[in-house]
Amino acid sequence: MDEVKRIKQLKKERNAIILAHNYQRGEVQDIADFVGDSFGLSQKAVDSGAETIVFCGVDFMAESAAILNPEKTVLMPETSAQCPMAAMITPASLKLEKKKYPDAAVVCYVNTPASVKAESDICCTSANAIKVVNALPENEIIFVPDRNLALFVSAHTTKKIIPWNGYCPTHHLILPGDILLEKEEHPDAQILVHPECRPDVVSLADQVLSTAGMLKYAKQSGSREFIIGTELGLLHRLRKENPDKIFIPGSKYAVCPNMKMNTLGSIIRALENNEHIIKIPEDIRIKAKKSLDRMLEVGRGD
Ligand code: 13P
Ligand code: SF4
Question: Which phi and psi angles does 20 have, rounded to 5°?
Answer without folding.
Answer: -135, 140
